[in-house]
């Protein structure tokens, strides 16, 4: 096991075998500070174009600051995990399926039996919320960065721009630093978000069964969503804490990492689950 995450490499990674969508899938993952056996465990869930490597140093920094253990992985189709099959198209319920099928199978495969904390970004934040709504007894708490509850016009506009950039610039090469198959990662995410049927996607109803401590973070300059997203969480999940960050776009853990780390540590300690 490796205590750190390297930028753009698979060094130190391990692979967990799960069955999903009728075929065996290898899931890339890394532990952070597994020797801290009695410390809280934080599971990191990446964004729609993210991967284990794309988190860069943030999980390590957070775990060192809080004396946590960490578990970081690439969902199927991303990073060094098994890519999508060539004919595999994700449906409107793809985040529900990640929460209901992939996440439980992965956690079981790597031996997680305790209720961890989940820190999710963007699509990963939505998956964390869905998992907590489905399995409330398996979650200690949530930190959700730039989550999606519903589809906004600004989101679609910028995902359309991302599609154009992928087709006309060197974006595929750049994503190749973080994904063995950048086409698998990009088109799996982009095509479903731009599918007209996805405009009706909404998980506000599911939030009514989330009953764990929740910290919701949003940048005021987020190009993929507005404050309506985290305000929607606060309206439905009792006791939700909000953190609205200026000079911050869609990635608070990169744009305002010190503030996110400080807020997360204070949040975990206030919930009575500090090391």
From TrEMBL:
Keywords of this entry: Hydrolase
Annotated coiled-coil segments of the chain: none
Organism domain of life: Bacteria
Sample GO molecular function, one term: hydrolase activity
PANTHER family xrefs: HYDROLASE, PUTATIVE (AFU_ORTHOLOGUE AFUA_2G14860)-RELATED (PTHR43798:SF33), MONOACYLGLYCEROL LIPASE (PTHR43798)
AB hydrolase-1 domain residues: 40-147
Full protein name: Alpha/beta fold hydrolase
Gene3D superfamilies assigned to the protein according to its UniProt record, in alphabetical order: alpha/beta hydrolase (3.40.50.1820)
Keyword Hydrolase: yes
InterPro entries: AB_hydrolase_1, AB_hydrolase_fold, AB_hydrolase_sf
Species of origin: Acidovorax facilis
DNA-binding as UniProt keyword: no
């Amino acid at each position: 096991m490796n205590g750190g995450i390297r930028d753009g490499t698979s060094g130190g990674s391990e692979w967990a075998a799960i069955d999903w969508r009728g075929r065996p899938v290898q899931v890339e993952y890394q532990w952070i500070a597994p020797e801290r056996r009695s410390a809280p465990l934080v599971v990191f869930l990446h964004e729609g174009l993210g991967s284990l490597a794309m988190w860069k140093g943030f999980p390590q920094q957070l775990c060192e600051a809080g004396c946590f253990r960490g578990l970081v992985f690439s969902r199927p189709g991303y990073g060094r995990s098994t890519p999508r099959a060539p004919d595999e198209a994700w449906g409107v319920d793809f985040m529900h399926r990640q929460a209901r099928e992939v996440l439980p199978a992965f956690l079981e495969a790597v031996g997680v039996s305790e209720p961890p904390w989940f820190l999710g970004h963007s699509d990963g934040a939505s998956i964390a919320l869905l998992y907590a709504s489905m399995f409330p007894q398996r979650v200690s708490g949530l930190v959700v960065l730039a989550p999606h509850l519903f589809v906004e016009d600004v989101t679609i506009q910028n995902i359309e721009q991302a599609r154009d950039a992928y087709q006309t610039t060197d974006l595929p090469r750049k994503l190749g630093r973080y994904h063995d198959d950048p086409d698998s990662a990009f088109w799996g995410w982009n095509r479903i978000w731009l599918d007209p049927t996805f405009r009706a996607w909404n998980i506000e109803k599911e939030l009514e069964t989330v009953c764990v401590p929740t910290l919701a973070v949003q940048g005021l300059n987020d190009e993929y969503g507005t404050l309506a997203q985290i305000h929607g969480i606060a309206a439905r999940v009792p006791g939700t804490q909000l953190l609205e960050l200026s000079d911050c776009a869609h990635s608070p853990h990169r744009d305002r990492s010190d503030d996110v780390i400080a807020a997360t540590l204070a949040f975990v300690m206030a919930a009575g689950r500090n090391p």
